[in-house]
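Fig. S4 source data, part A: sequence.
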Amino acid sequence: MSSHKSVVSVKNLDIAISSGGVKIVEEISFDIAPGEILGLVGESGSGKTTVSMALLGHCRKGAVIDGGSITIDGHEIVGSSPHELRSIRGGTIAYVPQDPGTSLNPGLRISKQILESLEKHLPNQSKSEHMDRVREILTEVALPSDEDFLRRYPHQLSGGQQQRVAIAIAFACRPKVIVCDEPTTGLDVTTQSKVLATIRKLCRDHGVAALYVSHDLAVVAELADRVAVMYAGRIIELGGRDEIFFASRHPYTRRLIRALPDIAGRNQIVGISGYAPMPWDRPTGCAFAPRCEDAREICSQKTPTTVAIAPTHSVSCHRHEDAAKIVVSPRLEREFVAHDTDSHLLRVESLQGFYGARQVLFDINLHIDSGECVALVGESGSGKTTLSRCIGGLHSDYQGDILFGGKLLGKSADKRIKEERRDIQYIFQSPYASINPRRPIGATIGRQLDLFFGMKGMEAQNRIGELLDLVSLPRTIVDSYPDQLSGGERQRVAIARALAANPKLIVCDEITSALDVSVQASVIETLKQLQASTSVGLLFVTHNLALTRTIADRVAVMRQGKIVEYGGIDNVFNDPKAAYTHRLLEHTPSLK
């Protein structure tokens, strides 16, 4: 795409650590035309967010733009003064954050938060014109524009509504460019579908160029016109949507696609062994060579140059001409085996859940057997997490029985014996909130070993190393603190901590929502291997139906606190009986 047609033009961008000059990202080049959406994908730590924030003239603490050019609608961002950047941000280029729950001001009403952007960038317009625009943009993002809604605070909205308010703020001043940083992470499939449709329509209708940063390849496949794949600070493949997903030439791109779960169940997901190198530890030659099955001697000696293999398709790989077609592993059909009721690891019987006077769970009945994975799926607010917290002993306001190994469990964790707390481990959704920020990683995992097994010293260190290997983390991070890790790395630490207890049942509450597809595939493979070797049972809470098909034996579909469909995974997905299940499946993004 020629740069004179582009509203965004990035040329040979380098960003380095200011103290030592180590490159975080290097030689980044791409253009985006009006109305076009460019997807930027890659594993955690690949440099996606670093590049996207650079478009706004922002570098994280300790980093600096070390060379290259970023042009936004004719404005050169590199070298611009803080005053110039403030005039461009929000007006010419806008930003949609990953987590609207923390980015929206909890103390300001919705109308005021949208008005702030208009008052800053369109000061010559009257208040009535500003309010007309507020109502107009709320309608464009499919939200109410009445007085009642305008007076609401963020906590009075659902996650999907909060995200659409964030989109409304970004589009309020009709920017030329928008940067979307994982804006659908954590949203259920129906809400995600609405948010993606909103972004797509606004970009098309108003000619807005968009950079869409995501680790979810299926979402990018649905939304983007072109895709840039990043690895270890470089763009290693760039092309049209179909060129990347159906004719990719870089081994890393092909491995990412093999790691993508498929809602139709046509393939087994395959993780990528090892992990991406840190900026200060990148190898000579191709950074992917140590993990590449197709690597040759030249790959570890010389950095590959970028080669155009089609007018819109380029790749940086020494062996791109030998690239094979994407290979997928055939899906192993699951055989559902009925178990005797006395052998169930966990039984939930006639459970009614409450928050004070409000009932949120209605007559829940399900069971999990040793070595079995039961998935719990449904939209936000369906009751999935409340049910899982009841099982984990974190929510005690319920009636009914939860039995583990045939014995009635105490309603709260402090009413359960030590062995029951050890045998039932809970992995939380947020890797940022679930790990103690003041403890090194080794101490976080080691506490479980000490608490449940009295394991200390060298024995504990060896076991910590084994657990880090299991979740594809380098053993060198034992002395690191959580703030030194990416979100995906923190979540793998949380998984390693749970595995340290050698549990019989793991409650996984949206544990892969913050992970990129390669790590997600590795985590799923790890859990499946654990099931095979230890017969651990899994309750897998998720809104990712494609992932459910990969790991689960049975699935319970929840809506408004009730299980509306329950059965073997293939039966439910191939022949759903509930209209609600049909709707979830229809809104699940996939490669088509």
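Fig. S4 source data, part B ends here. DSSP finds 20 helices and 24 strands in the chain.
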